[in-house]
Amino acid sequence: MRWLLLATALLCQNLQAEEVTVTGYGSTVDVALQNAKTAAVEQVAGTFITGKSTLDGDQYRSRTDQYNGGLIKRHEILSTIEQDGLFAVRIQADVDTDKVNSVIESNGAEITAPVADRIEKSRDDFEKTKRIIEALDDPAQAFAVQVKNVTYRNQGDLTKIIAQIEIIYSPKWYDDVHLMAKTIGREIDTGAWWREALWGLAALSAAFNPALPGTLFSIARQAEVKPKSIPEYIACFGKDNGWGVDECYEIRHPLSRTTGSSEIKLVGRLIQGDEVLNFGEVTIYTAEELFMSVWDGRKAYFQKSARPNRSFHNPGIVLFRKGAATVMYEITVPTEKLKHNGRLEFAELQGG
Fold first, then answer.
1. Which parts of 190-275 fold into alpha helices (H)?
2. Is the C or the N end of the chain the one with fewer CB within 10 Å?
3. Each residue's pLDDT tens digit, 240-285
């Protein structure tokens, strides 16, 4: 039995590691070796890069943050070649793909070299993921404003404008956050597809035949594996708030600026050439149409999901790809102002 447990443990470790052979280049052997290690991690665990450009007075500044998930557990130098001052180091490396190392367990009180390496890697991961999420956590990037429909009701010298405004996620921002979570985070098991199908089939069968024995429900229930409660912050992704959750990843840090408040403040304007007429502010309450905050133990109901009642075991957020928050905005303006071509615009207030 002991050998079986040992073999199982070794198998689990190997499932999180992959052996690769790569070549790194540099002006010295050490630089070439470091580049080879980075290339090995990128090949196995992927890379996420985000950049931000700012204008500080007359100075244009650009910053790029890069995250490489994974850890070199072991490497062997296969060859070192130098030509015209450029070194090429070829290595064979075992890459550990377990990206979020917040919980590190060790047997005994001694801090071994592998444990120290993982602690250092965990610290580096924490800081890198924080910088990347801070770059993405920008409401101006996240939200797009659409004017869906406008009605004009003339009242003589005054005209009432009724605009249907819709807030959605910018498709690029949503895809960037999704890719970021897949690259830097550890995926959380949200349930096997066949178990979800069993629940859906059982519910459908029971609706048609209330006397049906609960066989399918029993099979699905027996297949349940209750997740452990983990303090890591998660990002989950779903189609819309009527469907279930498709994927969840540990990302460590919340998108506090983008999802920290259910209020989005907009300012409305009528733009006619160089003339701008401000309408004032409008507040849209996103509620759970765009995102849903979750916490350890929260149960959420998804109407069209095979498992409509889902319990979360981490704090985090669920982002809905097709989510939209809609509001009707009314403003009365002088009719004279509408005699010329123009455009209605609603933009998010900075810091709102």
1. 193-208, 215-222, 256-259
2. N
3. 888 888 888 888 899 988 888 777 778 888 888 888 888 777 777 7
- Lowest-pLDDT choice from 20-24, 156-160, 300-304, 317-321: 300-304
Query: CA–CA separation, 165 vs 149, rounded Å?
Result: 8
Instruction: Tell which residue, 220, 167, 173, has the closest CA to residue 346.
Output: 167
> What does the domain layout of the chain look like in residue ranges?
16-136, 143-189+227-348
pLDDT in tens, 139-168: 888 888 888 888 999 999 999 989 888 888
- How many C-beta atoms surround the C-beta of residue 95 within 10 A? 25
The tokens describing 116, both together, are: 């120290």
Specify whether the CB–CB gap between 237 and 319 falls below 8 A: yes
- Rounded Cα gap, residues 341 and 255, in angstroms: 40
Pair 311, 295: CB distance under 8 Å:
no
Among residues 243, 262, 239, 261, the alpha carbon closest in space to that of 319 is found at: 239
Whole-angstrom CA distances from 203 to 130, 199, 252 are: 42, 6, 36
**Minimum mean pLDDT range among 49-63, 167-181, 248-262, 285-299:** 49-63
Query: Strand, helix or coil at 219?
Result: helix
* 8 Å CB contact between 344 and 159: no
**Cβ neighbours of residue 254 closer than 8 Å, sequence gap 6 or more:** 233, 260, 315, 316, 317
Question: Phi first, then psi: what are they for 7, rounded to 5°?
Answer: -65, -40
Q: How far apart, in whole angstroms, are the C-alpha atoms of residue 185 and residue 272?
A: 47
Least trusted range by pLDDT, from 53-62, 100-109, 238-247, 324-333:
53-62
User: Tell me, what's the pLDDT at 235?
Assistant: 92
d(Cα 150, Cα 135) in Å, to the nearest integer?
35
